[in-house]
Amino acid sequence: MTRVHRLHPAPTRQAGQIATRLLPVALLLLAACDKPPAFGETNSLIVVSDETLWQQVEAETYARLEPTVFTIREEKKFNVTHVDPGGSELDELLLWKQVLVFGLPGDPLIEAIAAAADSAPAAGDVLQASDVWARGQLATAIVLEAGNEAASWRAALPGLAARLDSQYRDYALGRMFASGEDTLLAQTLAVQFGVRLRAPQIYHGRVGEDGFIRLRNDNPRPSERIRSILIERVATDSADAAPLGPEAVFAWREGIDGVVYNVPQSFDRSPVEPRIFDLGGAEAIEVRGIWQDEGTFPAGGPFLARAVRCPDATWFFDAWLYSPNPRASKYEFLMQLEEILDSFRCTSS
Predict the structure, then answer these.
(1) In this predicted model, what pLDDT tens digit does every residue of 74-118 receive, in sequence order?
(2) Does domain 180-342 have CATH number 2.40.50?
(3) β-pair partners for 269
(4) Is the peptide bond before 298 cis (omega within 30 degrees of 0)?
(5) Phi, psi angle pair for 76, to nearest 5°
(6) What ranges do the domains of the chain cover?
């Protein structure tokens, strides 16, 4: 595991190299609290490398670091922007939240990140450190092999992509629980139904008089973003119950659209295959689609619906997102909804 420490001043020779490459030396020598806040979104990746080398690996890098996921259309998980170390935009782009530097040991930017990580860079290393050039920044050094730069770049991509995706997931889920866990809802579900569900307080979960369980997060405001989960318990005899299938989930979703929500919804199925999986020992199935309000105000977004077969009941879940800003990542908030649904268990113990 890479050790990450506050940045120490670079040796004099390296500082001189950095100055000649237009690196903001003053920022490197400042304590983290004195540096400017990082710019941009966490899923924006600034890739710094020699332009000639970049042209050799550009296609593979985009393919690995910009995978897509279907929300209401194919959406990139990350957005890559490349800059040459001698480019006029470097000073500004080094202040973004995610900076990836591809280079050799001795390259000034590689050495800056390695110093912050308290490591000596060697070919094949992937080093990370926080607050190198800005507060709230994560900088990654991908150390290449001299004379084999393009091949070593390509070899690093699978592991790098997996690490970035895992870190982004941790970031998104960590933000979700910043408000703390809704222990009252968890206790209510355990006592009333004998099941377990973990949700943040900010979702304001409650059990309605109609028997439906509702969770909703309108932050920062409903016109900008809504995350909603509706849950229904349908008593079943597991011995006589028909196998779960996607049509049963879509039929349930269609049945609640015009009854449970304040504004009736319709939906289209998404081109994503239904997922059949085990959820804590229970049979489960998930389908996805795109919902639309049938009211006068046009609204819509992605949803995922599930059914989970417990011994005494089938539990149905409808989780949908409203996030009309085309520049905002829907993937992040769908991950949060998935995390809540994934926490469900048929027993509270």
Answers:
(1) 999 999 999 999 999 999 999 999 999 999 999 999 999 999 999
(2) no
(3) 289
(4) no
(5) -70, 135
(6) 12-175, 180-342
